[in-house]
Design a protein that fits this description.
120 residues, mainly alpha, 5 helices, 79% helix, 0% strand
Length: 120
């Protein structure tokens, strides 16, 4: 901006010393701009990524430890109770034939998948 103002302004002999000391402005090449953007972008990702990973590990560790050995079974039991509650609520809304044709088949296929994965 200063270079443009000085270029347009008529320079007197008093300003000649100042004008001669200011180099002419040159626009950076698109390649230089792109390389600078990529370099600064990676620097940001490295710094921010390190912090995000560290905080994520700390939050996971705080949530995971100390671990109750029976927590997995408790979660499975709670999930099964919620599914049964939902099924009983939906059973009141839909007729028996429709319920049997979709929910029972899905539940049977999920049970078969679980038994296959447990035996493997």
């Amino acid at each position: 901006m200063v270079a443009l103002v000085l270029k347009r302004k008529r320079c007197s002999k008093e300003n000649a010393a100042v004008r001669d000391g200011v180099p002419s402005y040159k626009f950076p090449s698109p390649r230089t701009v792109l390389l600078r953007i990529v370099d600064r972008g990676w620097a940001f990702v490295r710094r921010a990524g390190t912090l995000i990973l560290a905080v994520s590990v700390l939050v996971w560790a705080a949530a995971y430890f100390p671990r109750d050995p029976n927590i997995e079974q408790q979660v499975r039991d709670k999930y099964a109770a919620e599914v049964e509650s939902l099924e009983s609520s939906l059973a009141r809304l839909f007729p028996e034939e429709e319920r049997r044709s979709t929910w029972t088949k899905r539940r049977a296929s999920h049970a078969a998948d679980r038994s296959r994965s447990a035996s493997a």
